[in-house]
Structure formats: structure tokens, C-alpha cells
Amino acid sequence: MDGTVKRASALNGTKGLPDSRHDTEGVTASSTTLLSPADDVTVNPTVNVPQREIDKMDISPPPLRKREKNIWIVVRAFTPAWFTINMGTGIVSILLHNLPYNGTWLYWISVIFFVLNLTLFILFTFISALRYLIYPGLFVTMIRHPAVPLLLGAFPIALSTIVEMIVLVCVPAWGPWTVTLAWTLWWIDAAISIIICYWIPFVIMHTHDIKLATLSATWLLPIAAPIVASAIGAVVAEVLENQQHALWTLITSYFLWGTAMPLSLTCLVIFYQRLSMHNLPPPEAIVSMFLPVAPLGQGGYAIMQLGKVAAEVFPKTGTLGKMGAHSGEILYVTGWILGFIMWANGLAWIFFALASISRRKFPFNIGWWGFTFPLGVWAGATIAIGQEMPSRFFNVLGTVSYTFSIVVILFNVWPLQLLVWEEIGRYWVLIYMQTRLRRS
User: Fold this and answer.
1) How many domains does the chain have?
2) N or C: which end of the chain has fewer CB within 10 A?
3) pTM for this structure?
């Protein structure tokens, strides 16, 4: 029993049961599972603990509080990585609604996905708030990690998908008050996106010495958040009756796109250099190869949608003076050209990603949901291009891309359930062993 408890403590990387006061330096960020690699509560078999350090560990467990014998363990172990599930289910609901070959049955399936996404988002937000209120030290520990804070970018992206579905589904059904709701949520989403886009990369730059060989595509997550918010801003601006409100929403959306898109392109260049000089990411992180598709696909869709709305709003508001009548048309054409270029660049990264996963076997982790959102937004850009062209090619291609996203969702659901029960089971084993040791 003594050796068993030592092994359990070594797997956990801390003394006995995890304590939020412990630091997490040395814990790898390569695996993003149910439990965060940044948090001291992670059970991560890939952590290499020297035997001399294991021998020094105090194997006497700390006293167990009753509330940590049940659901509180899950609360303590919760991480921002779970919001990637919202990204996946959210983009699927949007695609189901916007498909060129649509039907009533697809509409109602999109509503089901929307309700599921909204429910999960509220649940995850509640658990996250509870986690940091009860264990405030975990927030500081998470922020100090070189990789996990980047996953905070998933939160505003997930919120963006909900705002768009409110516009697409709730506004036609329930009227003006849902427009106000969507507009309010969008401003909140835009503010959070900018804060995360600026603050998280700076904290990591300031705190850690990042090597090129360890750089991952997850750096794009916080930077992509304003790009997604800019696209949703254009969608919200279309349903605003007050043209001045629509104008300021549109201008803010251009600001969001302009501040984040060049940053994401810079990161893509650096990540391309990392791949060229240091090979592909490790197997457990290979799905991150799809992440570069997200800012390109969503950025292309955003600039096309912004140009489309500008062509309607600018002439009505007299923006840009005498050129107002034509400036919207110029932005519309320019937006389509830029969107098509970014869409084509995204296709190249899809090839790199598919070629990479075909070369390496990789275990399931929650990062598999990273498949869905990038492919979904690229499919959305494909459909947007098809709506402006007489050819059916892009509509068919967008539908095929959407179908692939649905297949990925189905492949993710069952392994995710197994992963959840496996990780919860590990924690109950640890608690059982320590309880037996304390009683003996």
C-alpha cells in the first residue's frame, strides 16, 4: 500500500491529494484532457518525476474535506479547454442553419444544437466561476502556465457562436428584445476578446522564455477571438434598426478585425517557421495543426460580411462624406477579394493538417474538438463565397466541409464520455487509497 500511494502521488505531481498552493512548473502542456495540464490537480502519466524527488515526497495525505469527496473534485479540475466543445457545437448549429441546401428538419436540428451549446456554455461558465471563487489560487496558477492561459480564448469564441444563433433563430421568432440582447452580449464578447487578445500573449511573453521548438498553434486562440467577434458584429449590425447603432457596431467590428488579423498572420509565419525547423507537433498535440485554418476561414468570412453590411449602412448614414455612396461598394468588393485570398490560404493549411494527422497516430483528448471549429468556419467562408458567385461549386464544397465537421463531432462524443469517466475514476482511486492509509 505504501508503494501504491507513492505511485499515485507521483502521477499527480504533488504531495498526496492536490493542493492549489502547489506550483505547476515542470508539468507538460502537451496533453489537454479533462484535467488541465496547468493545474495541480492533473493526473498526467507523461510527467517525469525523478525518483529522488519521489522519495522526498511526504506521502501522508492532507485531511480530506467532505465537500472534496464528490462533485467538488470535478469543479476543482475544470479548465478553459472545455469551452472548445462550445466552439464545435456552436459552429455546427450555425452551419446547419446557413446551409445552401437546407430544409425544415435541418433548421430544427440546428435549434437543438443551439440549445445544447447554450446549456453547456452556461454550465461551463458556472463551474468556472465556482472554481475560481472557491479556489482563488488556481487562477493565478493557471495564468502562470506557459500554455493553458491561451485556452481562455475559447470562451469569447464560444460566446460569439451563441450570439450569432440568437440573431439567426431568436430574432425572427421573438422580435426586438432579442436584438437588444444579442447586441448587448456582442459588446461584452468584443470587450472580453480584446482583453484576452492583448493581455494573455503579453503575460506569457513577460513571464516565460518561450522556445521556437515548443511553440504551438494554440497561440492563435486568444488572437482569433476578436476576428470571430468582428464577424458576429457584422451579423448583429444587419438586424439593428437604428442605423447609427449599426454604423458603430460596423466600425468596431472593422477595428476588431484590423487589430487581430495582422497578429494572427504574424503568428502563422512564426508557426510555419517552427514546423519547417523543428518538425511536426507531438502526437498528442497534432490536432493543433488545424488551428491556423480558424483565423483564415473566419477572417475571410468576417471581411466579406463586413463589406456586405457596409454597402448598406454607409450610404444611409453618409459615412465618408461625398464618397459615402460608393465607399460601401468599394469595401464590399475589396472584402470579397480579401476573403477569397484568405479562404485559399486556409485550404493550404487544411492540406498541411490532413497530411500531418495521416503521418502520426495520436491519442484522444479534448483537443480533438479543435478539428471542428476551424473546418466549420472555413466551410462558412466557402458558403459565403458561393452566395456571391453564379457557380454551385462553392455551395457543394461548403456542404461537404460541413458534413465532415458533423462526422468529427460524432467521433468526438463517444471517446469524450470514456475520457470523462476514466479521469473521474482515477480521482476516486486516489481518494480511496489515501482514505485507507489515513484510517490505518
Assistant:
1) 1
2) C
3) 0.77
